Amino acid sequence: MFTYEHYQESAAAILEKLAGLQPRVLLILGSGLGFLGDAVENAVTIDYRDIPHFRVSTAPDHKGRLVCGLLSGVPVMVMQGRMHYYEGYTPEEVAYPVRVARLLGVEAMIVTNAAGAINREFRVGDLMLISDHIRIMGESPLRGGNLPEFGPRFCDMTETYDPAFRAMAMEKGRELGLPVVQGVYFYFPGPQFETPAEVRLARTLGGDAAGMSTVYEATAANHCGIRTLGISLMTNMAAGVLNQKLSGEEVNEAAARAGKAFSALVLACLPELVKE
Which of 71, 183, 61 is closest to 127 using CA atoms? Predict the structure, then answer.
């Protein structure tokens, strides 16, 4: 288990490299979506392995580095790649960067992922704003001794994904003519894709999209007072929805095709997240 001092050491190591920049928004980029980090202006790049107590991302296409600078004029801390439970990390290790970001002054977060569409009305390429999530499997990143410096022992999860942020993002999507929908993200631990039977269960329980990330970071953000906007890119129809098999290559190819729409929505939303 990490102590508060561990988080402070990580934050201090990052702060030393930022030359006065204070990030206000944390942007976590999921599978196939890391390209947006390359658009950061006046970028300071820090490999995860060079930050005390950070874990290293091992997932394909995850660069495993922080990119800090300006995006849409907003001071940001961009995670080009994340840690996952399926890599062998604990939920606390997966969520670790979120708490470090809070110590650096971050007040809002955009967490993104590539997901499989459970909802039959969704289409590949849709951008789903996460209204809520379901986590049946896997521990909580808040398990163990509570760190009161970040939040209470028992935190409310009613508005994990900020309703005002979501309404704003829907409006931006309409203005830009983008395929934006809303739905519930159903967490699976992975790394294998879900079975058709698991997808049917998730649909019965109210899931609209399936994925292997996001909920640990969102939970930690909620605990420490970071307002969150969650965006899932539908890169495929979930197992069993169509009569075809799934692959990681399909996910990355779909993410590349949807890159323009994804970038447009994120860049439009960023300045709105830090308005007083």
Answer: 183
Question: What is the spatial distance between Cα 129 and Cα 142, in angstroms, rounded to a whole number?
Answer: 24
How many CB atoms lie under 10 A from the CB of residue 159? 15
State yes or no: pLDDT of 242 exceeds 70.
no
Buried b / exposed e across 13-34, counting CB within 10 Å, b at 16+?
Answer: bbbeebeebebbbbbbbbbbbb
* Helix orientation angle between 91-103 and 4-15, rounded to the nearest 10 degrees: 60
Structural element, H or E, at residue 102: helix 91-103
Asked if omega into 23 is within 30° of 0 (cis), the reply is: no
Distance, CA of 104 to CA of 234 (rounded, Å): 32
pLDDT in tens, 41-82: 999 999 999 999 999 988 777 688 999 999 999 999 999 989
Task: Give CA separation, 194 vs 114, 131, 187, in Å.
Answer: 14, 21, 10
SS3 content of the chain, % helix, strand, coil (to 5): 35, 25, 40
The CA-based dihedral angle spanning residues 105, 110, 114, 115, taken in that order and rounded to the nearest 10 degrees: 120
Q: What is the mean pLDDT of residues 152-171?
A: 97
pLDDT confidence bin for 134, thresholds 50/70/90: very high
CB 160 within 8 A of CB 135: no
Cα–Cα distance for residue pair 172/135, rounded to 1 Å: 29
